[in-house]
Amino acid sequence: MEALLDKGFLVSGGHRTQPLYMKNQKLRFVESLILLPMITIMPSQTVLSQKFNTAEVSLTFNQAIDSEANIQAKTLKIQAEAINAYFSLRNMPLEGMGMKMAIEADKNNIDWRLLPAIAVRESTGGKNDCTRVSHNFFGWGSCKISFKSDIEAIETVAKNLGGNNPNTATHYADKTIKQILRAYNPPSIVPNYAKQVMSIMNMIGPEDLGVNSNS
């Protein structure tokens, strides 16, 4: 016959056996060990998944930016080559300044052909700069303004024509090409100035040259 001992063990057939409540505790303990990894692993998987998703979004975003930058760089290169080709065929000193003109036009949101066309109309592409001042092949300021370099001249005129100089914005900001040219050199002074410059622009190349190029 089984008898209850002080330690909580049962005697059965002369051997001690564990009581049922202790067996149940062990069983629950074993079950908890089985369930615990499942509980701890799932949050880690979720975090890892989130990290991958974030990395994928970031990679896609960076790829889009890189792709857009590459397209813009190719467009500027094509436009610069067209400007330089026009200058080169006519032996104009401004050959080689095509990229700077294209970049400044893009930066100031003006037609990429406008700067070289004005330079051609005003000084035959640098052949006949303003004589009393330096690096002024645009005829800027009625040939009364000097620039330290050709680069400074391009940057200054592009900024003004783009309406980004508060002092001249009223003349050039938010204007069409024809309006910009009429402000640059009014019809009362040179009647066909705008028409002449726009004709040169068309000879340099089409307005959308390189914009849709994926090559």
Distinctive features:
mainly alpha; disordered N terminus; two-stranded antiparallel sheet; 2 strands
Tell me about this structure.
- This protein has helices spanning 20-89, 98-107, 114-123, 150-161, 169-172, 177-184, 193-204; strands at 10-12, 15-17.
- It has 215 residues and is an all-alpha fold.
- It has a domain at 72-204: Orthogonal Bundle (Lysozyme).
- It has a two-stranded antiparallel sheet with strand order 1-2.
- Helix 2 (98-107) packs parallel to helix 4.
- The N and C termini lie far apart (96 Å).
- 26% of the residues are buried.
DSSP strand content: under 5%
Coarse shape: elongated
| CATH fold name of the domain at 72-204 | Lysozyme
Low-confidence stretches: 1-16, 32-36
Gyration radius (Cα, Å) is 39 Å
Q: Summarize the biggest pleated sheet.
A: 2 strands, antiparallel
Number of strands: 2
- Arithmetic mean pLDDT: 82
Number of helices: 7
Strand order of the largest sheet: 1-2
What class, by secondary structure content?
mainly alpha
State the end-to-end distance.
96 Å
Question: Any guess at the CATH architecture of the domain at 72-204?
Answer: Orthogonal Bundle
CATH class of the domain at 72-204: Mainly Alpha
Helix content: 55-70%
H/E element sequence: EEHHHHHHH
